[in-house]
């Protein structure tokens, strides 16, 4: 089992990802389930014992993913504006669209990946 993870940038968000993990990213118009996606802006990668830190991004590093769900909506946000003594109220709701992706691999040139031993639980 590996302890590999990376921090990528999508839009203006930084996301920590590991292989096999499912994360939500900004909505991709025209995306289809099973379609591959590549994130080439990798800020940091850690292989268990060693880290590579980009300034600002790592050269040649990529994170490969595939789309699980092309479109789903986030939680509902309620925006309420109220002006006192003016009999003015305004209520707006919003749900942001996202795309769900599964991380398939993290490729960082020159990064050593340490294998981790599965330790038994403390109560066993």
3D shape:
elongated
Mean pLDDT, to the nearest integer, reads 90
Structural class: mainly beta
Task: Report the portion of residues in β strands.
Answer: over 45%
The number of strands is 8
The ordered string of helix (H) and strand (E) elements is EEEEEEEE
Q: Which stretches of 5+ consecutive residues score pLDDT under 50? A: none
What is the first-to-last residue Cα distance?
Answer: 20 Å
Question: What integer value in Å does the Rg equal?
Answer: 20 Å
Largest sheet: 4 strands, antiparallel
- Kindly report the spatial arrangement of strands forming the biggest sheet: 2-1-5-6
Percent of residues in helices comes to under 10%
Question: Helix tally?
Answer: 0
Give a written overview of the molecule.
- The protein is mainly beta.
- It contains no helices and eight strands.
- It has a four-stranded antiparallel sheet, with no helix packed on it.
- Strand 7 and strand 8 form a beta hairpin.
- The radius of gyration is 20 Å and the shape is elongated.
- The relative contact order is 0.30.
- The model has no long low-confidence stretch (mean pLDDT 90).
């Amino acid at each position: 089992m590996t302890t590999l993870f990376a921090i990528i940038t999508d839009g203006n968000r930084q996301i920590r990802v590991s292989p096999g993990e499912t994360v939500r990213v900004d909505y991709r118009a025209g995306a289809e389930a099973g379609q591959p996606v590549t994130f080439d802006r990798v800020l940091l990668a850690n292989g268990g014992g060693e880290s590579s830190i980009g300034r600002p991004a790592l050269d040649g590093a990529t994170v490969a993913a595939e789309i699980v769900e092309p479109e789903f909506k986030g939680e509902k946000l309620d925006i309420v504006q109220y002006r006192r003594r003016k009999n003015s109220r305004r209520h707006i709701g919003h749900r942001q669209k996202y795309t769900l992706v599964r991380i398939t691999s993290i490729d960082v040139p020159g990064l050593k990946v340490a294998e981790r031993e599965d330790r038994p639980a403390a109560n066993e």
